[in-house]
Amino acid sequence: MLPVATAPAPAPSYLRPDQLAEVLDRHARWIKGQPGGARANLALADLEGADLAQRDLRGARLVGAKLARCRLSGTNLAGADLFGVDLRDADITRANLMQTDLRGARLRSADFSNANLRGADLRAGTLEARRGTGSDSHPDAQDAEATRQTHRTALARLQGGVTAEGGIPTDLTGAVLAGANLTEADLCGAVLQNADLTGAVLTDANLSGARLNGANLTGARLDGCTFDNADLVGTRMVDCDLSQAKLGSACLTRPIDSMGSEIQRAIFDHERWIDSVGQRGERAELDGTDLSRADLRGVNLSAASLRGANLSDAALTGARLMMADLSGANLERANLMGADLSGANLSFARLTGADLTRVNLGPAEIKDPSGRPTGRSWAANLMGADLRQAMLTDSRMVQANLTDADLENADLDGADLAGAKLQRAHLKGKVPRRR
Prior knowledge:
Blueprint: H1 17-32, H2 141-159, E1 231-232, E2 251-252, H3 261-275, E3 364-367, E4 373-378
Parallel strand pairs: 1-2
Antiparallel strand pairs: 3-4
């Protein structure tokens, strides 16, 4: 059992290197039970880009800390309190995160390759006590209340003034968890969209209600893993033994060959029409078609008519939809990561919660019937589109028409909005970062 002395909580600001060094030195003494030691309390601190590789930070308090792009390779964080921490793009390879509290953490694009996350708590961030760690586990009621208050502050930061029903889900979008040990980890409700879980050990892990669309679980060990109500649309599960997994009422992909013959033929003929520059096949007209949960990864439906189509929860990663007509379409929660929507018509489309990470919504080059450039271009149209809570990270929206679009709480980090029309666009909660 480690000692329980605690260093004073630092102000929620950047720590100078000498201040950080002192905190780490005192924590090392605390770990060893030496005089002058105190548990590291870096709650709400700004440590972005810090090098903490190979450190022993067992039991450290890092609630709500900003650790984006930090080096934590080989770091021992067992039992640490990382509630609501920002670890986006961090290097956490081979780190020890056993029994760590990661509820509500921002882990997008972090590299957890070969990390040990056995028994880690990755549920949504709420003020609910962590399972098995009620207030009676703290040395005294005062310490327990201080921890709760810090969690409350971190949660308020995560919510950005918006109350989220069920708490703030832990975000592992695009994270690399290849070979990671997630045995008995609690990932209930976590967002693992487009995450790399190849070869990961998920024995007895809880993925109930988790969002795994586009994730790669090739070769993962899934004995006793629970997927009840999980979103598995577009999830790659090659070489996985599902005989001992608990799929419950998981939401699965609808492959194209399971749809009606007319839809299959329309897509096939459209791709022939594109490849032959209109000489063979014919343009797809799929207006109003139900393509919900469809696996359309990498499909080429450029210039297709999909007005009012239902593409909710569809897997469209890498799809080519240049100058497609998606006006009024339902694309709620669709996975469009890396898709090309240049020049597309998305006016009044519903894109609530859709993943548009690194999507091209810039202008499309107009070509003549023979395929030669004309020197003219056609801007993407998102007039009146519902983009609430959509992920537009690093998307290209040059010259896009976003007049009257609703972008409330959309993630526009790194989005290129040069020349975009934003008249009457609703941007509450997020402000596009200037490039």
